[in-house]
Write a structure and sequence with these properties.
The chain folds into 2 domains: about 90 residues, no CATH class; about 130 residues, Immunoglobulin-like. The protein is about 25% helix and about 25% strand. It contains 7 helices and 10 strands. α3 packs across α5.
């Protein structure tokens, strides 16, 4: 006995306790949702909305270039549990967004500061207000749509750096250039301290403070959603003079 057609599964996703006839979100919101440009809380809100809106799911499919013949049908299934509806809608959205299922490649991370002649893999030296640049390049086939972020380690917690207030992130064909003041990355006091660069193919680690677990910062970031996490060191110079 053959299983349901893909469009049957799509339209049989009523949100528990609704008639599945909610209004469709605006096109601009749906495009941002497909491009992973919404904050996590807003993504969740849109998923709840789509789980109870056949019109919204149809429009999301149309924006992804998928056409379903005929009119949306009334659900032939009993109302689904809330968790199942949201999970199914999320999986469908991942499909529409064209998310590849292959793993991210490893990345080479090179960093340079004011006192460095060239970028290196181990660390950089700079004054507190000096500029630090971090180049992140894939070692293998690049993947489109990846996200890059930076976190400062502060009193046992990872603090996300905001773009563009704390760090600017420029992406190009699967690579990135992160630029920030040294003190934004590791604080302004003299000494050598690490910060962390993450690469993610999906939503990535959340944009909030993360308490470091016993496994260390890299594992904390991976558990939070980052697919790759790299430790980078910056040495803050103990001088008030310009570093050549």
């Amino acid at each position: 006995m053959s299983g349901p057609e893909p469009d049957d599964l799509l339209w049989d996703l009523p949100r528990a306790g609704t008639e599945d006839d909610g209004p469709a979100p605006e096109d601009g919101v749906l495009r941002a949702y497909r491009a992973r440009e919404l904050p996590a809380q807003e993504e969740t809100r849109i998923e709840w909305s789509l789980a109870g809106s056949r019109r919204g799911r149809r429009r999301l499919a149309e924006l992804a270039g998928i056409s379903f013949a005929g009119s949306p049908r009334r659900s032939r299934l009993p109302l689904l549990a809330v968790g199942l509806a949201v999970a199914a809608m999320t999986l469908f959205a991942l499909f529409l967004a064209g998310r590849p299922d292959r793993a991210l490649p490893a990345y080479e991370v090179r960093v340079e500061g004011q006192a460095d002649v060239r970028g290196g893999p181990r660390g950089a030296r700079a004054l507190p207000g000096g500029t630090v640049r971090v180049r992140v390049e894939p070692q293998g086939a690049a993947r489109a749509g990846v996200r890059f972020a930076a976190y400062r380690l502060e009193e046992g917690a990872l603090i996300p750096l905001r773009d563009p207030e704390d760090v600017t992130v420029e992406t190009d064909r699967g690579s990135a250039l992160l630029t920030a003041r040294a003190e934004s990355l590791v604080g302004g006091g003299p000494g050598t301290r690490p910060f962390f660069v993450t690469v993610s193919g999906g939503r990535g680690a959340p944009n909030r403070r993360l308490e470091v677990t016993g496994e260390g910062p890299e594992a904390t970031l991976r558990h939070a959603g980052a697919e790759r996490a790299y430790r980078v060191f910056v040495t803050i110079e103990n001088t008030g003079e310009d570093v050549p």
